[in-house]
Amino acid sequence: GAGVSQSPSNKVTEKGKDVELRCDPISGHTALYWYRQSLGQGLEFLIYFQGNSAPDKSGLPSDRFSAERTGGSVSTLTIQRTQQEDSAVYLCASSSRPRLAGDDEQFFGPGTRLTVL
Amino acid sequence: QQQVKQSPQSLIVQKGGISIINCAYENTAFDYFPWYQQFPGKGPALLIAIRPDVSEKKEGRFTISFNKSAKQFSLHIMDSQPGDSATYFCAASMGYSGAGSYQLTFGKGTKLSVIP
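ok -> structure tokens follow
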């Protein structure tokens, strides 16, 4: 079956421009996560969506970052007025439960590599 | 504040040897500890996971050892193969009990190279 897909795979933008990154989770997965992977920093949690509940935005680094999830499926992460420090790989993950339990896993997409010049 | 510390940053092991990666955590509320494997250009994939009521879990060549009192856990890869060459991340969350947060807190990763 299809896994988590993300688009674009690569995005190069100029400082100050806005970018939109897209995530298509596994069909039927109710939970969706965004993480950021920076060189030497590992993976950092950004935001979590579960069904129709209010998202957990506690990991968003600044108000330039926002995300939405339409119809409980596709999600878009938007970064406004991009800065060079936003350069990273942005990963999306989905899971079949709202919370991790037992060996339930988060399935990751391949990521979008964002480069801000 | 880094809540999960991982070491070493990189590791070179000969084929057939044992690879050992260590992690330490600070938050005693963590109750789920997965290891993820990531190949270049791919997203991380779950390798093996453990809960704190178990001291060891083995799946094939991969074993997690967990020391709750020391707040440490480690991944052992037996009979390491060149195909195991990847970046490994330990992680932790408070999700298992159904309470608290559910996102994963990751270590910074270990790049493993298995040489023939």
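Chain A has one domain: 5-116.
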